[in-house]
Amino acid sequence: MALIEKNATVDTAIGLSEANASDYIALLKPRVMSLVVFTAIVGMMAAPGHINPILGVIAILCIAVGAGASGALNMWYDSDIDAVMKRTANRPIPAGRITREEVLTFGLLLSAFSVVTLGLFVNLLSAFLLAFTIFFYAVVYTMWLKRSTPQNIVIGGAAGAFPPMIGWAAVTNSVGIESIVLFLIIFLWTPPHFWALSLFMSDDYEKAKIPMMPNVMGEASTKFQIFLYTLLVAPVAVLPWVMGFAGIVYGVFSIGAGALFLFYAWTVWRAPVGAPMIKPAKKMFAFSIFYLFSLYAVLLGEILVRKALFLAGA
């Protein structure tokens, strides 16, 4: 017992924590990482040409690790505001299970590993895009935009939109117009998705002094901008079909899903300010997750079927 207490005292003195594996996994933001990996896979599969399967797996793993690094760096910098928000108070740093220094080191090591590995084994363009994505999320969004402007989500949303472009670049060593469209779908989807969340989490953001749209511009303005951005993303989501790199199934689905997304945005916009708009905002937030995932899932399904038919014909 004395030896255990002595070791605990030494660990405290040198700044070590007692974090376990689940805490390190939480630092990676696994739910966000899963969406990043999924959209990157779609970008890779949609790209013309082919990539060695082993290199493809390496590319996806690097993108996943890079996304996790971004999440860890975000939690390192935002530990002060995470501590005062109900949604984030139990994260490893504010809960006292790990130190900020450990998280910073963890995030930087993962960042360097993912970028260098992608550059060495796949190509420099995809590595550059991954490095820029990590920098954009950790520095431009987390350290600057998040605490300084209600447009934080609009500009910062670019970080979450890059993965399909990175996947495309891993295969082609280029950035095609198709990958830019895949980027734009996520980029334009991000504001209505997060502003719907902010409508029913505004008290948390207020306590943390984060200038989210409802807290700065008011609920009425936020609801209108949610509808405006949904008006933008719905037709952009149809472009893969219009441009010919998605088929009729995707085209019909994207039109129908876009119309439903607009309906949810309309119900939020027309709901009275205050408590009555919380329920439609929650419904829209939930549907927005399904909307983006299903668009990419249908697109991926079509691509896989098309490739299977090609191989069968060959």
Give your account of this protein's structure.
This is Protoheme IX farnesyltransferase. It catalyses: heme b + (2E,6E)-farnesyl diphosphate + H2O = Fe(II)-heme o + diphosphate. The chain crosses the membrane at residues 32-51, 57-77, 103-121, 152-171, 177-201, 222-242, 248-272, 284-305. It comes from Phyllobacterium myrsinacearum. The protein is mostly helical and 314 residues long. The chain has helices spanning 2-13, 21-27, 30-46, 53-77, 79-82, 100-121, 124-148, 152-156, 158-161, 163-172, 177-200, 202-207, 213-216, 219-236, 239-242, 248-270, 278-313. 78% of the residues lie in helices and 0% in strands. The N and C termini lie far apart (70 Å).
Query: What's the architecture of the largest domain, going by CATH?
Result: Orthogonal Bundle
Form type? flat
Tell me the strand percentage band. under 5%
The profile of the biggest β sheet is: none
* Low-confidence spans: 1-14
Classify the fold: give the CATH topology of the largest domain.
Tetracycline Repressor, domain 2
H and E order: HHHHHHHHHHHHHHHHH
Instruction: Give the full name of the CATH homologous superfamily of the largest domain.
Output: UbiA prenyltransferase
The CATH class of the largest domain turns out to be Mainly Alpha
Number of helices: 17
Mean pLDDT: 91
The count of domains is 2
Helix content: over 70%
What is the β-strand count?
0
Task: Assign the structural class, choosing from mainly alpha, mainly beta, alpha/beta, alpha+beta, or little secondary structure.
Answer: mainly alpha
Taking the alpha carbons of the first and last residues, their distance comes to: 70 Å
Q: Radius of gyration over alpha carbons?
A: 21 Å
